[in-house]
Every structure is written in C-alpha cells, then in structure tokens.
C-alpha cells in the first residue's frame, strides 16, 4: 500500500450522480474539484451513450472513473452535493 492509496476523511466530500453513484471530491481548490466533476459527468454520459447504443454493460463500464463509487446511504457523515447543484 502506498501513500497515494489513502485519503484522509477530513475535508472529504462527494458528488452524487445517483443513489448508488457518489464519487469522491478530495479537499482541493474549487477549480480542481470542478475538473473532477467535469470528468465524472463526461465519463457517465459516455457510459450511458454506450448502453443506449446496445454496447454490453461490462464493456461500457470501462469508461467509468477508476475511483470507487459509493452508495448515498453510506455517506451520512460526509457532505454530499448533487451534480446538478454545482
């Protein structure tokens, strides 16, 4: 395990793209967080487009962020912002 494998919970928040898809927003300058949100939105739009074209879900999933998505129900102590609110 390297130091890059760990994020402190302090200052951590999440961007919600659905009840089962909340992605980490590390404490950073607003412009950096905006970059994360843009990247997440683009990846999710590409994923949905692939599904709409009939591409297998297992293949479409490869365009999603490598960051683990969290379900909203497990994030009670964290700040969670809906992507449409930012």
Question: Would you give an account of this structure?
Answer:
The protein is α+β, with helices and mostly antiparallel strands. Helix content is 31%, strand content 14%. The chain is built from two helices and three strands, in the order ββααβ. The chain has helices at residues 30-52, 57-60; strands at 13-16, 22-25, 79-82.
Kindly list the characteristics that best describe this protein.
about 90 residues, alpha+beta, 3-stranded mixed β-sheet
**Rg from alpha-carbon coordinates:** 14 Å
Characterize the overall form: globular
Secondary-structure element order, N to C? EEHHE
Q: What is the average of the pLDDT values?
A: 86
The percentage of residues in β strands lies in 5-15%
Number of strands: 3
- Helix/strand/pairing class, anyone? alpha+beta
Task: List the uncertain runs.
Answer: none
Q: What is the share of helical residues? A: 25-40%
Distance between the termini: 33 Å
Short description:
The chain contains two helices and three strands. The protein has 86 residues and is α+β, with helices and mostly antiparallel strands. Strands 2-1-3 form a three-stranded mixed sheet, covered by helices on one side.
